[in-house]
Amino acid sequence: MNRFYRHLNLDEHPAFRGYFHVAAHSKAGGRRLRGGKVARDAALATYIEARLSDYWSPEQIAGYLRTHPDSGLSVCHETIYQFIYGAQGRARQLGRLLPSRRKNRRRRYARRPRGLFIPLQNTIGHRPFEIGERTRFGDWEGDLMIFRREYGTSNVTSLIERRSRYMLLSCNRSRHSAGVMAGIERQLGPLPAMLRRSMTFDRGTEFASYPVLASSLGIASYFCQPSAPWQKGSVENGNGRLRRFLPLDTDIAMIDEKELDRIAARLNSIPRKCLGYRTPRDVFDEQIRHARAE
């Protein structure tokens, strides 16, 4: 029997007897409501919307609340997604605050393969075990973000350190490999040698000049299999986050390096689940201090 009725004498309170269909239907409807917990809690909904506006993902919000129980709020990331794509979330257009900015949740598909001859020793299958397991720092992934053709040939090289998820960005005026590699050298050159050990690319021709990284910085380069961009998943994920700041219709030629640095700094200051909700900047800066102390 429901605890609410235990202390009552039902003979004295006959109105409490039986099944109340209106109340039961209302409670059942509340349970079926997408994101119902958030929709029924105004304080939680306000907090979630504020964090989404600060460019946090639903998983980051849920993880942060879980590690800070003193806030008095708790929710799982799937409930947040259900709230975002539910009636109230759609009315508030919360989908535009997500990294993907999609109105509906959908699957993503792999890119079409691009050609570049890669020596056997530089394929991802020959990459040292510790790179794949993320057991050391200094292993990077690189990719090229392109924009609409009407804005010219300018593009952005995005670099992600695999263990800390720390991001660096470099602007290129074309897709010529020499310029792309020069931007990578400019970004990674100031780092201690132990923090620039290897690089993983896809098979785009813009990375054809990869041997210069070995000769100038001692960086070994490896390449994904055809049609397998997920093999450099860290930078693919980082590009998805970056698209909210640099959408496809951005005239990247009008954005200078300082603005790119500010965007990277903002992304590096958001806590990540894979880092125990520490920020990429915290983890990477800690490794720089250790490297310089040795």
TrEMBL record:
Q: Domain named Integrase catalytic: which ranges?
A: 124-288
What InterPro entries is this protein classified in?
Integrase_cat-core, RNaseH-like_sf, RNaseH_sf, Transposase-Integrase, Transposase_IS30-like
The record's annotation in PANTHER family points to: TRANSPOSASE (PTHR10948), TRANSPOSASE INSI FOR INSERTION SEQUENCE ELEMENT IS30A-RELATED (PTHR10948:SF23)
Q: Would you name any one GO CC term? A: cytosol
Q: What is this protein called?
A: IS30 family transposase
Q: Which domain of life is it from?
A: Bacteria
GO BP annotations of the record are: DNA integration; transposition
Q: Which organism is it from?
A: Sphingobium fluviale
Supply one GO molecular-function term: nucleic acid binding
Task: Name the lineage.
Answer: Bacteria, Pseudomonadati, Pseudomonadota, Alphaproteobacteria, Sphingomonadales
